[in-house]
C-alpha cells in the first residue's frame, strides 16, 4: 500500500508539472497576423499573462516622431508611445479547456478593449478571439506566429 501511495504521488506531481508547464507555452515573442508588429507575452507576478507591443514595422508617424496611442478613449493616454503599450491583460490559464481566458485585448487601431481568450494550435501558432457582451461566439479572431526574438 505504501508503494502505491508513493507511486500515485509521483504520478500526480508529474501531471501537475505538465499542467503548469502548458500554461507558460504562451510566453514569448509573437508576430501579429498583419506582420506589422510584435507582442511579447509574459507572466506577471500575480500569475496572469500580459502582452506588450515591442516592435512596429513603421514605428514613426508622418512627422517622423514615434507613433502614439492616438485612438485611446482616454485623452490623457493619446500621447503615450504605442511601443510598450500593453495590449493583452489578465489572462489566466484553464488547463481543462487548454486555453487562456478571462483576459482583454486592446486594439490601438480603434482604441477599443475587448474581452478575449487565447488558445494554441501548436507551439508556434497562437489564436486570439476578442468578443463583446460576454458572447464568445460574437467577435473577431486573429492568429499570431511565434518569433525567436524582437526584430530591429
How is this fold's topology laid out?
Layout: H1 2-23, E1 28-31, E2 37-43, E3 49-56, E4 86-94, E5 99-107, E6 112-122, E7 125-131, E8 139-147
Antiparallel strand pairs: 1-2, 1-8, 2-3, 3-4, 4-5, 5-6, 6-7, 7-8
Describe the structure.
The protein contains one helix and eight strands, in the order αββββββββ. Helices cover 14% and strands 42% of the residues. It has an eight-stranded antiparallel barrel with strand order 1-2-3-4-5-6-7-8. The longest helix is centred in the N-terminal third of the chain and has 22 residues, at 2-23. The protein has 152 residues and is mainly beta. It has one domain (26-147): Lipocalin.
> What would the average pLDDT be, to the nearest integer?
90
End-to-end CA span: 59 Å
CATH fold-level topology: Lipocalin
What percentage of the residues does DSSP assign to strands (E)? 35-45%
CATH top-level class: Mainly Beta
Structural class: mainly beta
Kindly state the percentage of residues in helix: 10-25%
Features:
mainly beta; 8 strands; 14% helix; Lipocalin; single chain; 1 helix
Write a brief caption for the model.
The chain has 152 residues and is mainly beta. It has a single domain, classed as Lipocalin (Beta Barrel). It contains one helix and eight strands.
Amino acid at each position: 500500500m505504501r508503494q502505491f501511495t508513493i507511486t500515485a504521488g509521483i504520478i500526480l506531481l508529474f501531471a501537475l508539472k505538465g499542467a503548469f508547464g502548458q500554461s507558460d507555452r504562451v510566453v514569448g515573442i509573437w508576430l501579429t497576423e498583419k506582420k506589422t508588429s510584435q507582442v511579447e507575452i509574459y507572466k506577471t507576478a500575480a500569475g496572469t499573462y500580459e502582452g506588450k507591443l515591442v516592435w512596429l514595422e513603421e514605428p514613426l508617424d508622418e512627422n517622423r516622431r514615434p507613433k502614439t496611442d492616438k485612438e485611446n478613449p482616454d485623452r490623457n493616454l493619446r500621447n503615450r508611445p504605442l511601443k510598450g503599450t500593453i495590449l493583452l491583460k489578465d489572462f489566466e490559464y484553464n488547463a481543462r479547456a487548454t486555453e487562456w481566458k478571462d483576459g482583454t485585448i486592446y486594439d490601438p487601431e480603434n482604441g477599443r478593449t475587448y474581452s478575449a481568450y487565447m488558445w494554441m494550435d501548436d507551439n508556434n501558432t497562437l489564436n486570439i478571439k476578442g468578443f463583446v457582451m460576454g458572447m464568445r461566439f460574437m467577435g473577431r479572431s486573429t492568429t499570431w506566429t511565434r518569433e525567436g526574438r524582437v526584430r530591429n
